[in-house]
Amino acid sequence: MTAFQELVAFQRETEALASIAERLGWDQETVMPRGAAEQRAEETAALESVLHARRTDPRIEDWLARAEAETPFEARFLDLAGRSYNRNTRVPARLATELARLTSLSQGIWAEARAEENPAAFVPVLKQVLALKREEAECLAEGDLYDALLDDYEPGATHRSLGAMFDRMRPRLVALRERVLGAEFRPPVLDQVFPEAAQLRLARICASAFGYDWSCGRLDIAVHPFSSGSGRDVRITTRVVESDPFNCLYSTIHETGHACYELGIDEEYAFTPMGHGVSMGVHESQSRIFENQIGRSAAFTGWLYQRMTEAFGDFGIRTPEAFHACVNRVTPGFIRTEADELHYNLHIMMRFDLERELIAGRLAVDDLEEAWNARFEQDFGVAVPTPSQGFLQDVHWAVGLFGYFPTYALGNVYAGCLHQTLRAALPDLDASLAGGSARPATEWLRESLHRHGGLRPPVETIEAACGFAPTEGPLLDYLEAKFGAIYGL
């Protein structure tokens, strides 16, 4: 075999092992017995040790030096393989293994601390996770520590570029929020019990409406909803609050967006560096466009209103129009995953600032809860009542995902660009949505973006799909038009 062929064969085995590791994570968050946490931490650490050894195998350097690219696919393969090798060889095996072991344990500790409203139980392990992540950043950094971690999730982005984008977005978001909250109109709210079994049945119907392939996936319950897998095995999770069916339904639609991206990637890219979504920002654009621009549109909520009536009977909302306003109700809530479209990015901007302070060493973990609560009251105008509604609500820091949060807001920006282009390409989309099918949108996204996987860098991926460089303008224009119409501004 040529050097390129040898590298491809080696990479396929590494990617397959990484898929097994990801499946262990799915199992831990869905069906693993609680008593197995320590054993799973050792299993995860052992597998990470094997993966790290493969990712830093000296033969990779030799293959990269000798391989010659003859196609764009091969050139991108070598570029991504080289990037991975460079990053992994900078991180000692000891550190990679310990991070895998500790974050596996930390996840369970976080879940129990959140359930028991007991921050003191979580703070010690978060200190350890943060220390290891800062050590990892020091191994990787060629400049700013936070940028080194951010690069894992959004290659090419920096805290300065994202911070500048957030600074441009914040004034229009805050101004629109103030106009909405000052409007006379008040959407109705749900006020009854929605049984879990009925919610889950309707969640499956919603996932099917977007084209989720049940032969390659499944839906389970988790403390924090997520999507897991790639290729032909992509699984989604949701959670159920019986007083709030939107929590379950829109978490499911959100995760279906992630899943459809992975399921739509060209099968020829399987077990290669291009066989995954190119970045978390692009990934979040798929989940957010499913959840918001499509899933909360008047056409889709009109269909969903009928399905809600069938599932729950008279639930207090009298018309499809009132239901649409209810789904899109703006309120300064505490939970990011339940936040309306106006407040969501403000949640992310807060987390972005806090985690940069943590990584820089300017904020101690012991002071994190107080800093969170003060910043939340400043940004949202309400006091945080419990830790589970405050700094314990997200799993990300528990599992070491520092640098991940800003990709959610970047995903919203990308989604705004994609939605503008998609609507121009599919002028009759609302007719399909009103009939309960978002498949035309999913198919357009599959052809324009999904199938290419990681073939292009993130910004180029969005630009190729939209025909223009991504910018926050389309998202902000969409929000002003949508909420202006709902609230009569």
Q: Overall mean pLDDT score?
A: 96
List the domain count as a whole number.
Answer: 2
> In terms of quaternary structure, what is this?
single chain
Number of H/I helices: 20
Q: What is the CATH topology classification name of the largest domain?
A: Neurolysin, domain 3
The CATH C-level name of the largest domain is Mainly Alpha
The low-confidence parts are: none
Number of strands: 3
- Gap from first CA to last CA: 66 Å
Q: Trace the largest sheet across and list its strands.
A: 1-3-2
Q: In terms of structural class, how would the helical and strand content be classed? A: mainly alpha
Strand content: under 5%
Which CATH-level-2 architecture of the largest domain?
Answer: Orthogonal Bundle
What level of helicity do the residues show?
55-70%
How would you describe the overall organization of this protein?
With 489 residues, this protein is mainly α. It folds into two domains: 3-140, no CATH class; 159-487, Neurolysin, domain 3 (Orthogonal Bundle). Helices cover 64% and strands 3% of the residues. It is built from 20 helices and three strands. The protein has helices at residues 3-30, 37-55, 58-66, 72-90, 93-116, 119-140, 145-150, 159-181, 196-209, 245-264, 280-294, 298-312, 320-327, 341-360, 368-380, 406-425, 429-434, 439-448, 458-466, 473-487, and strands at residues 219-221, 227-230, 233-238. The chain has a three-stranded mixed sheet. α8 (159-181) packs antiparallel against α14, α9 (196-209) packs parallel to α10 and α9 runs antiparallel to α12 (298-312). The radius of gyration is 22 Å and the shape is globular. Its cofactor is Zn(2+). It catalyses: Release of a C-terminal amino acid with broad specificity, except for -Pro.
